[in-house]
Amino acid sequence: MSIKIVNLKVNGVDRAFMAKPETTLLLALREQLGLTGAKRGCAQGACGSCTVLLDGAPVVSCLVPAATIDGADIATVEGLADGQELSDVQQAFLDGFATQCGFCTPGMIMSAEALLSRNPNPTTAEVNEAISGNVCRCTGYEPIVSAILDAAQRRRRSLGTRADATAGEEATL
Amino acid sequence: MLTEVHVPEEVPAVLSLVASGARVIGGGTSLMPWLNDHASPPTELVSLRRTGLAGVHRAGSTVAIGAATTLSQVEHDARLEVLNPVVRSIASVPVRNLATVGGNLFARQPYGDLAVAFVALNARATLVDENGTSELPVEDIVAADRRSVLVTAVAFERPGPGTFKYVKAARRRYNSASVVTVAATITESDGIVTGARVALGGVGARVVRAHAVEDALVGRQLTDSNVQAAGQAGLSELSPADDAYASAWYRTRVFPVHLRRALLGR
Interface pTM (ipTM) of the complex? Predict the structure, then answer.
């Protein structure tokens, strides 16, 4: 049995840890990198509470042997806030009461982030499909779907405002 | 439990590791749930992640998909539009970002819906062993336990528009294994069925090639009564199991309905 040093960029920061063969990305994040946002739910890839972004794509980290992803780029929920300022998705979850016990929330938010990066104007059906791998026992899903649609709207509006401002500056030059 | 994980960068290294007892891991979506149960036997894995086996190539009407291509890559590739409803019926986004095309050939029923589709599409698999490269129909791969074989690619002829039909009946709309999966390629001429390949999932220990259904369709019109008769003919080819998703009785009971929905769209 060999132990490997695995290097990852996690939330923009270079990290390294020792991976045994059975070390999954989830266990590495939680137990070696201090990032306990991703949760241990089923170890089967069925509940989605371990969802993080691997090279930009949401994956169930409980199924990824860490030794296979040396050099990868990982994004977790801990990397979303800017200091004390929550991301638009996080804020929308808070404002929309889309989190109760909070266990599914990091995975839901990472799935939402991935969706909005790919599709800035999703329909309800597209949101449903995007979070179909994330189980929630508490909310009944509706507030989560609303929060994601709300976050999408906030993000489109804020990008629109910045685009307008740039256009305004160019017009006066 | 996992005793070792190898991440080679070339196929020959994969083959020699398989020869010495390692198991191939694609996305890990079948193997890792089993290995995360630490009561599983000591297992050595060889990962395909860095072997360069992912990718899609189109040459004329033939499409070839590297075995390590993820289901998400299939989902987002316009050349593979015919497979879009198939892959989107499988698991969920975070699983599809890991699960591979090759791995789906070895997923046990009632999983393995892409394999069902490949049988209906008459797909061929490229195999590599120490003697070199060969080709086998996917239908032969899924018919037997072939764990010692390395599949490097799957290829098929793109079907004519409207000829590929697919329905997966499941307990939930998303992220749910098959109750009954029907995949079919049906060619017609002047309203008469001239060719039929029908493959079924969820209704046996392995993918079922429904010859009796095909025989009942060829040479006839695709009418409600003919499709119903074909469904009845197909019952003898089903050997479903009871599992957490549905009982064998239920699967048999609803099979003709889902066959009709696949073939007639209603």
Answer: 0.95
Q: Residue A62 and residue B36: Cβ atoms within 8 Å?
A: yes
The pLDDT of residue B145 is 76
Distance from CA of B175 to the nearest CA of A (A): 6
Q: How many domains does chain B have?
A: 2
Q: Domain range spanning residue B218? A: 164-264
Tell me: do B215 and B135 sit in the same domain.
no
What is the model's pTM? 0.95
CB contact under 8 Å between A63 and B36, yes or no, is: yes
Distance, in Å, from the CA atom of B75 to the CA atom of A161, rounded to the nearest integer, reads 33
* CATH (domain of B175): 3.30.390.50
Examine the domain organization and report whether B104 and B184 are in the same domain.
no
Report how far residue B266's alpha carbon sits from residue B262's, in angstroms, rounded to the nearest whole number: 8
- List, in order of start, the domains of chain A with CATH numbers: 4-79 (3.10.20.30), 88-172 (1.10.150.120)
Convert the pLDDT of each residue in B178-208 to its tens digit. 999 999 999 999 999 999 999 999 999 999 9
The model's pLDDT over B221-240, given as tens digits with 9 standing for 90+, comes to 999 999 999 999 999 999 99
Phi, psi of B90, rounded to the nearest 5 degrees: -100, 125
Q: Please judge whether A1 and B94 are an interchain contact, meaning their C-beta atoms are less than 8 angstroms apart.
A: no
Alpha-carbon span A156 to B67, nearest angstrom: 38
Measured CA to CA, the distance from residue B116 to residue B209 in angstroms comes to 9
Q: For chains A and B, what is the number of CB pairs under 8 angstroms?
A: 96
A136 chain-B contacts, CB cut-off 8 A: none
B126-185 pLDDT, tens digit each: 999 888 999 999 999 999 877 667 999 999 999 999 999 999 999 999 999 999 999 999
| CATH number of domain containing B148 | 3.30.465.10
Query: Exposed, middle or buried by CB within 10 Å (0-12, 13-18, 19+), for B189?
Result: exposed
Top residue of B17, B98, B245 to mutate, by most chain A CBs within 10 Å, is: B98
Give chain A's mean pLDDT: 94
